[in-house]
Amino acid sequence: MPNNQNMAKTVSESAVEMRYLVMPNHTNPQNSIFGGVVMSWIDMAAAMVTERHSNRPVVTVHVDGINFKAPIKIGDHVLIKASLNYVGKTSMLVGVKVLAENPFTGITRHTTTAYLVFVALDDIGKPIDVRRLIPESDEEKRRFEEGRARIEAMKKKKK
Ligand SMILES: CC(C)(COP(=O)(O)OP(=O)(O)OC[C@H]1O[C@@H](n2cnc3c(N)ncnc32)[C@H](O)[C@@H]1OP(=O)(O)O)[C@@H](O)C(=O)NCCC(=O)NCCS
What we know:
The protein has two helices and seven strands. The chain is of the alpha+beta class. It has a single domain, classed as Hotdog Thioesterase (Thiol Ester Dehydrase, Chain A). It binds coenzyme A.
């Protein structure tokens, strides 16, 4: 179903940044953050990016990899940076980068990377076409091409 959204948007128009303070209720018995908490923050940030781009309700259809590179400790400040890498017909690929900052040393570490695919839905819950994405910077253009290849690989795997 067409969405009548002809106006393309830039990556920065839908990008989202969220910050959290890691509290005891976020942690596992090792006083590191529980992975499921990070995953829910990632999913929420990515959902907001795709809602902002499509101006439609969205659902997660696929998580294309999530890598926990380093632990996040209690008391750390967590920065979730999410932005669109690529847009298909009805699907949107979001790249999410998670950084943890120790507020007492100021040292920031890149802890997690994830890629998620969302689909925008029409009023009866069917996929709806989304507007085009305009990658502007060299990095956005690189991510766009990598995103296209990632989506093609996903489609092959799904078949
Ligand atoms: C989202 C949903 C309506 C899509 O229905 P569908 O019949 O799979 O629709 P399509 O096959 O037409 O796929 C729609 C788009 O999603 C993409 N897609 C579907 N499954 C995918 C997967 N596993 N990985 C990557 N992309 C996928 C398709 O490639 C297509 O992209 P395009 O239109 O940009 O080319 C349906 O899958 C659904 O309801 N899923 C459950 C969502 C949910 O509950 N999520 C968890 C809570 S938010």
